[in-house]
Design a protein that fits this description.
Helices cover 51% and strands 25% of the residues. Helix 1 crosses helix 4 (63-74). The chain has helices at residues 2-23, 25-28, 56-61, 63-74, and strands at 31-37, 45-51, 79-86.
Length: 87
């Protein structure tokens, strides 16, 4: 259990540290990663992403690109889905 918890905490911290590079300056200012839930198998984990309400449609169009960028930075299969939450 400790290994899994440490890994998840490490991935969340790394994602937050790299968020401006992954999302780009424009989107990093209006969104921030809240929680990364890892999952076993090819489906990947779930990322809860906090977004300013008015910018949610803009971010939603970019979700496939964000998933690709996150997986490139953190490893394949890290994120399979992104859930937007108003922040």
């Amino acid at each position: 259990m400790r290994t899994a918890a440490a890994r998840r905490g490490f991935l969340e911290a790394k994602l937050r540290a790299l968020w401006s590079e992954i999302a780009g300056a424009e989107f990093a200012g209006i969104s921030s990663p809240q929680k990364l839930s890892t999952a076993r198998g090819p489906a990947g984990g779930l990322l809860r992403l906090s977004v300013d309400g008015a910018h949610a449609p803009q971010i939603q169009l970019m979700l496939p690109q964000l998933i690709e960028r996150i997986n490139a930075a953190l490893g394949p299969g890290t994120v399979g889905r992104i859930q937007l939450v108003q922040g």
